[in-house]
């Protein structure tokens, strides 16, 4: 019988595959190196078959590559696959669990992102990380200046305006070492804000 559904466990160097026919009989188990697994799929699995993977770092890219070759690709969130793992977790067992999970009638799947959607997501994640770093640096400055009896104003803009005044105040109670350290933090906070 031809293979109708394949579960693929994506890894750094070796991909495990588990393929079944329309009657859920196992037709193919294998493991292939990252640079050869796609050729193995094309050679063994007819176009139009369903191929499933856990949604992970490279799964959207791999899904687009499979779709370009005529396969129906389904991405599954890892937490939905876990309940189908039957024994000790490894690549072969995970591929089988993915294959079984994708065959369930009420399974929820992750939408495959286009390159443009991934670009937008990456930009949002980078910006979020920069905002988090910026906030962390501002909180660090507030804490350090508070140790010298200064109360930092609320808000990044007000903190940014107060810092030069503190650094230029000859009677601020800060030692030269602390002033240099604060100036370094201030320069770092300014460069991140741009």
Automatic annotation (TrEMBL):
<dbReference type="Pfam" id="PF01548">
    <property type="entry name" value="DEDD_Tnp_IS110"/>
</dbReference>
<feature type="domain" description="Transposase IS110-like N-terminal">
    <location>
        <begin position="6"/>
        <end position="147"/>
    </location>
</feature>
<dbReference type="InterPro" id="IPR002525">
    <property type="entry name" value="Transp_IS110-like_N"/>
</dbReference>
<protein>
    <submittedName>
        <fullName>IS110 family transposase</fullName>
    </submittedName>
</protein>
<dbReference type="InterPro" id="IPR047650">
    <property type="entry name" value="Transpos_IS110"/>
</dbReference>
């Amino acid at each position: 019988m031809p293979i109708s559904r394949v579960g693929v466990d994506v890894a750094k160097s070796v991909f495990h595959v588990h393929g079944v026919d329309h009657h859920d009989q196992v037709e193919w188990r294998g493991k292939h190196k990252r640079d050869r697994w796609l050729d193995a799929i094309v050679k063994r699995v007819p176009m139009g078959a369903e191929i499933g993977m856990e949604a992970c770092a490279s799964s959207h890219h791999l899904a687009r590559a499979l779709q370009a070759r005529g396969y129906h690709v389904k991405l599954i969130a890892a937490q939905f696959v876990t309940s189908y793992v039957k024994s000790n977790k490894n690549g072969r067992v995970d591929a089988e669990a993915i294959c079984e999970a994708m065959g369930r009638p009420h399974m929820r799947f992750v939408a495959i992102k286009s390159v443009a959607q991934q670009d937008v997501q990456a930009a949002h994640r980078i910006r979020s990380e920069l905002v988090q770093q910026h906030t962390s640096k501002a909180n660090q400055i507030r804490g350090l200046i508070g140790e010298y009896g200064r109360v930092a104003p609320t808000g990044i803009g007000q903190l940014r305006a107060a810092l030069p005044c503190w650094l230029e105040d000859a009677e601020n109670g800060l030692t030269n070492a602390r002033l240099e350290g604060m100036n370094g933090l201030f320069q770092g906070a300014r460069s991140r804000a741009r």
